[in-house]
Amino acid sequence: MVVRVEDVHFGYPGREVLRGVELAVRDGESVALVGLNGCGKSTLLRLCAGLLRPSRGRIRLDGDDVARLARRDAARKAALLHQSASPVAGMTVRQLVCQGRYAARGPLGMLRGGDDAVTARAMADVGVTGWADRPVAALSGGERQRVRLAMALAQDTRVLLLDEPTTYLDLRHQLDVLATVDRLRRERGLTVLMVLHDLGQAARFAGRIVALKGGVVAADGPPREVVTPQLLAGALGVAGRVGTDPEGGWPVCYPDHPVPITEGIAE
């Protein structure tokens, strides 16, 4: 197991978020975390990246307790792509992608000497090499997200942690980003753990879906097994129907109306 979450508890002042999460992610898997806002999906990613420490339990990356690792050591094991980030004025695509080399080259080394082989490959793999000298601020939202994905790849880790990588993107760019992530996972042999709000996209692009509710894992398994009307009601708070895509075979969701979030899957 590349990522192992063992009885993890975490909370903020006055609010418990995670209360005993168990999760194991195998090498090369693509896992989508789903659930209502505030259920702890993004928090769990930050814990896996070592940015937060559990109040109880442990998270292991390649066998190491991530909470005991120095920040740069943790960054060598997993790359976290946050939901969004405002571009720094005047920063070029090349300069932003080079920031992904912090863990390997240090704060000065990542800015010295231009592209190294890892940075060049990261830009090529997501198709942004031709934009290297363009200001990041001049890019569209979809273009900017591809550049940020290249920055995550430049960390040269086996694990990608993606926090809502399609946020603020139109449908075309959502599909483009998710298809690119899936291609890179297969080509590079990566392990992907990502937060997605669209259950239909999670069912199409992830090999496994993990639903969080009430601070614990409410459902875990292949999309064809776990994407059900009960999951829609219990973990996402909507009544709806589930069909099957006639060509791809993945589940297709047809949400109808909200329901009380206490219905469906039990706490």
Largest sheet at a glance? 6 strands, mixed
Broad shape: globular
Distinct helical segment count? 10
Number of domains: 2
Instruction: From the 3D structure, determine the CATH topology of the largest domain.
Output: Rossmann fold
> Any idea what the CATH superfamily of the largest domain is called?
P-loop containing nucleotide triphosphate hydrolases
How much of the residues is beta strand, in percent?
25-35%
> How far apart, in Å, are the first and last alpha carbons?
27 Å
**Based on the structure, what is the oligomeric state of the protein chains?**
single chain
Structural class: alpha/beta
CATH class wording of the largest domain: Alpha Beta
Detailed description of the structure:
- It is a single chain.
- This protein is an alpha/beta fold.
- It has ten helices and twelve strands.
- The strands form three sheets. It has a six-stranded mixed sheet with strand order 6-7-8-3-9-10, sandwiched between helices. It has a four-stranded antiparallel sheet with strand order 2-1-4-5, with helices on one face.
- Strand 4 and strand 5 form a beta hairpin.
- Helix 5 runs antiparallel to helix 6 and helix 6 packs parallel to helix 7.
